Amino acid sequence: MPKTFRLTRLLVLVLTVMSLLLSACGDQSTPSTQGIGQGAATAQPGQTTAAQAAQTAATSTGQGTMTDVGTPRSETLIVQTFDGKAANPDQQNPLNAYAIWRGFRELGWSFLWEDDTATGKSYPELAAGLPEVLNPQNTQFKVKLRPGVYWSDGVEFTADDVIYTLDIAFQNKTKFTRVAAYTSYIKSYKKIDNYTVEFETINPSYDFATAMGVYTWGAAFIPVPKHVFEKQADVTTFKNTNPVTLGPYTVKSFDPNGFWQLWELRSDWQRSGWGNLGQPKAKYVLYKDFGSEETRTLAFSKNQYDIDTFMSPDSIQAAQAKNPAITTFSPTLPYHDMNDACSYGVYLNQQKAPLDKPEVRWALALTLNLQQVGITSVNGQFKSSAVPIADTPITRSIYVDPVTTWLKDFKLADGYQPFNANFGTELAAKLKEQGVADAALPKGDAISQSFGTGWWKNDPAQAEKLLNSVGIKKGSDGFYATPDGKTWDLEFVIPGDWNKVMQRIGFSIADSWKKAGFKVNARQVDNGEFTTVQNTNNKFTTMMNWSGSCVYNSNFLNSWRTMNPSNVKDVNSSEALTGNFFRVTNTKIFDLIKASTSMETTSQPFITNGQEIMKELIKDMSVINIMNIPTTIPTNSFYWKNYSKQDNFYAAPYSWWSSFKKTLVNIQPTGQK
Fold first, then answer.
1. pTM of the model
2. Which CATH architecture has domain 111-229?
3. What averages of pLDDT result for each successive group of 10 residues across the chain (673 residues)?
4. Whole-angstrom Cα distance, residue 161 to residue 125?
5. What is the CATH number of domain 343-628?
6. N or C, which end of the chain has less CB nearby within 10 Å?
């Protein structure tokens, strides 16, 4: 008789395919409004537009398939957007909260230094080389710019653009929303000549290239064109709707409703900020929201787009069953790239009672049944991480292995040892028991590489003991009540459909807590509200998040330098945070981070401080780190091939990172029309 797991997976697959067929039958195209720039049509996600009416005629005349925005499909790379619909598609000023997930940092902007995501090392982009240190204190730097780089309107990029961007950022730092990272880092700056700028930092800086360039997915400092911005009456409200770009692509058109944005390759791409990498292969790049996951899966299987973003495993399997051109990052478990710089975790407002007690935070960790959560939400396709960073080939030897060794002996105040070093082995055994083919499961040392070095025990009894010790006990309704006898209603904010994988994980966590006796309100929010909750104390209790755990190499400062007293706001504050999203108040952590700013970021003292910070975060259970982000990014090779995969890894395969430029110069057209 078939195993239960096989039956469940088969049922899910059948239901998914049936829903796709029903979606196909019920999809009704609607008339659309005009777009911006070229008058391209717009539609609700997943719907077609009037431009498709000409597609049959175009094909019959040999022109080939056309996209619904009027470009040849064979020349257009199409990507599912990270966040679904953009709330501010006309806001394209990088000094403010612009439409960040629409290709700007990937295609339009350019940075002083980029990050090689295959190695974690910086390389020059707009700069001619790495920064030159001018004094023993590591506070003064000379930056040489690469001559011969031009804005998309033909004006040369020079030191004047860098100086102007810094000037208006410092002059308006209380009004611009995206400049705090460098206005609080740079003390002074001056132009030496058209291609040379000197900087002085407030503190000793051994991470200048990543603080002022790209550390992982993008840079805080984005040069703007002086010759455009200086003509504006108010640069703080200037939307920059039709931006002049430094990258090799320019905005051709975008949907005013926020569902898509179309980019076109510059004719002078060689003179762009990263034109020296080689010619981008796609003449057009379209970022588009294809709607609900069911609609997306159908569109993907019909070759309507090329790269998805966080499609759930069941939908990927359904799409692959219909189209062999669709593949995942790896053919074996966990099937997907697990090397994102960040990790998923439950963020907790440590200033809000009863979460201000470490016993309560630990109780939530010990009642989060991660094995069941991971199997239910992502079919076991995940890599656990109890250490509050992502466990990657770069970070494992530096931080994960040393902290894991410490965890094996770690005890809570009552002597209890919460760490389960056998988590990965137990997960593999459970998956095999539920019907996963033995050949697809990792063996021996590969278990740790696939499923992580361990996680917390699932121990509701120990959790109840901890809760009782601070006066929290179960009421007659079976739910935990605070010391005043009131049932504790725990709000847990999770993404809506814009991140289906994270949404499913969030619902599974909420279910795990409910079974343990917590009354949980799992509240779905759109991307805009998600960021608002993250940044605002009086709106935040607990949430699924990734923003504070992004350590990509030995340098933890890019993510954690904001853990300082200035970023501790009152629990009822409505003032937006600019960092410290863990809400850390531990002064030992503050002291370790401050001391680390004066150390070489690859030195052993710096690394030791990082390990100690991680231990403090764990002792306090400041964040319930869960797993590496399971970047479920299937690709479709019908029109384009040579994507970055496990056996052909040249860059992180993420379409929302600035390193996506490496994909653009490496993919190849298949010749399909």
1. 0.79
2. Alpha-Beta Complex (3.90)
3. 41 42 35 34 44 41 82 97 86 88 91 90 95 96 98 98 98 91 94 98 91 91 97 96 96 94 97 96 97 93 95 92 95 86 94 96 98 94 95 92 98 97 96 91 90 97 98 96 96 91 95 97 92 93 91 87 91 89 95 92 95 98 95 95 93 92 97 95
4. 15
5. 3.10.105.10
6. N
